[in-house]
Design brief:
Layout lengths: L3 E6 H15 L3 E5 L1 H5 L3 H8 L5 E4 L2 H9 L6 E3 L8 H7 L2 E4 L4 H13 L3 E8 L7 E2 H13 L3 E7 L10 H15 L3 H6 L3 E5 L1 H6 L7 E2 L12 H7 L9 E6 L2 E5 L4 E2 L5 E2 L4 E6 L16 E4 L2 E6 L7 E4 L11 E8 L2 E3 L1 H8 L3 H6 L7 E4 L1 H12 L3
Parallel strand pairs: 1-21, 2-3, 2-10, 3-4, 4-5, 5-6, 6-7, 6-8, 8-9, 9-10
Antiparallel strand pairs: 1-11, 11-19, 12-15, 13-14, 15-18, 16-17, 16-19, 17-18, 19-20
The chain binds pyridoxal-5'-phosphate (PLP).
Pyridoxal-5'-phosphate (PLP) binds next to loops.
């Protein structure tokens, strides 16, 4: 068992969704829950949001099935590529897939629909500038017309994805919108008549660009209370509160009293410059703490910042707790979250490691025990804290 804990506040996630919904209305909210709901736990997050959002977006088939296994019947869109052999499962789960060609895969989709005697729900993906998945704009009108006419397909949506909304590259972003609208224009009335939902915006664009909200937005990172970038935070934080929903803690295993000049860790990259207390944490890069934080990161112990010293190991990390007398074996250590007046959020940790908050949370191993705070558990805790023992 990994000796660490993730505490996830499902009510904070619901409040983030409510705040963003208030901003993007009347556009509807499709919560992106790929990568184990950005590390927060897919079944729990899907259940918590089932009544709050219009749909869920996942990347893989197994993620769609996990949502159904959690008892959630909401619409699902699988954003990533699907194998033909999985189409029956997908159709049975009632999930929609993204389609970006009318080639052999599209024929497999149609065959599945006929075999199951029900139209296969699809969203057509149009590439307007990421150059990843999606049909080029030039071919989009044909593909859309074909899908509208195809009795085996239930065309539910047409969508694109933005390359640089997080960086506030508004010329490029608005150019993508123009290309998307131009690609749909020849079929505008037919799409509207069939109720085909248009969508383009992930978190950053949904918050920053009213014109990009279209019929539906696809926020991932903001759902979890993490800003997409420093730029979006600077632009939006004055008017919008996002609550980080995840707290990551562990405990000190060992605290060593060592003399000045003592080498710590692999590669001898750190030596004490004074008599020191060096703590060892049971979390290393295999548990999701980036090795790039070696000699750079910080954690919180007893409401104070303690630097990471030496190289982060596969399963362990050293911190300097000199001058923090509460730092004893078993003492709580916060990797993400607040302690006393100090706080480290996923983006702080990411910045020190040279990456983005997305990567930090998406790579939190599923094996870390997760504990969920719900409205009921929070009410219970505050009740028991009021009852004299
Ligand atoms: C991951 C993803 C999103 C969500 O992005 P955030 O920046 O986390 O809001 C939306 N759409 C697509 C296609 C994605 O792959």
């Amino acid at each position: 068992m990994i000796d660490a804990e993730l505490v996830i506040d499902l009510e904070a996630i619901r409040r983030n969704v409510a705040r963003v919904t208030g901003i993007v209305r009347p556009a509807r909210y499709a919560a992106v829950v790929k990568s184990n709901a950005y590390g927060h736990g897919l079944p729990e997050v899907a259940r918590a949001l089932a009544c709050d959002v219009a749909a869920f977006c996942v990347y893989r088939v197994d993620e769609a099935l996990a949502i159904r296994a959690a008892g959630v019947a909401s619409p699902i869109l699988i954003l990533g590529p699907v194998e033909a052999r999985d189409l029956d499962l997908v159709q049975a789960a009632g999930a929609a897939i993204a389609l970006w060609s009318d080639g052999s895969f599209a024929r497999d989709v149609a065959r599945t629909a006929r075999r199951q005697a029900s139209r296969f729900p699809v969203h057509l993906k149009i590439d307007t500038g990421v150059t990843r998945l999606g049909i080029d704009c030039a071919g989009a009108a044909n593909l859309l017309a074909g899908a509208l006419a195809n009795a085996d397909l239930d065309l539910r949506g047409a969508f694109t994805h933005l390359a640089a909304a997080e960086e506030l590259e508004s010329d490029f972003t608005l150019g993508q919108l123009e290309r998307f609208e131009a690609a749909l224009a020849p079929l505008g009335t037919a799409l509207a008549r069939r109720g085909v939902v248009r969508h383009a915006a992930a978190s950053a664009a949904a918050l920053l660009y009213p014109r990009l909200r279209l019929d539906l937005v696809r926020p991932g990172i903001a759902t979890y209370g993490i800003w997409p970038s420093d730029e979006t935070r600077a632009a939006l934080a004055p008017g919008l509160e996002l609550e980080a929903a995840l707290r990551w803690t562990t405990r000190l295993v060992v605290v060593r009293e060592v003399e000045s000049g003592r080498s710590v860790g692999y590669g001898c990259t750190f030596a004490t410059s004074r008599p020191s207390r060096i703590g060892v944490l049971p979390v290393g890069y295999a548990e999701g703490l980036p090795r790039a934080l070696s000699n750079r990161g910080e954690v919180l112990v007893a409401g104070r910042r303690a630097p990471v010293v030496g190289r982060i190991c596969m399963n362990m990390t050293f911190i300097d707790v000199t001058g923090i007398p509460e730092a004893k074996p078993g003492a709580a250590v916060t990797l993400i979250g607040s302690d006393g007046g100090e706080r480290i959020d996923a983006n702080d940790l990411a910045a020190a490691a040279g990456t983005i908050g997305y990567e930090i949370v998406a790579r939190l191993p599923t094996e870390i025990p997760r504990r969920y705070l719900t409205a009921a558990s929070t009410a219970m805790a505050s009740l028991s804290s009021k009852v004299p023992s």
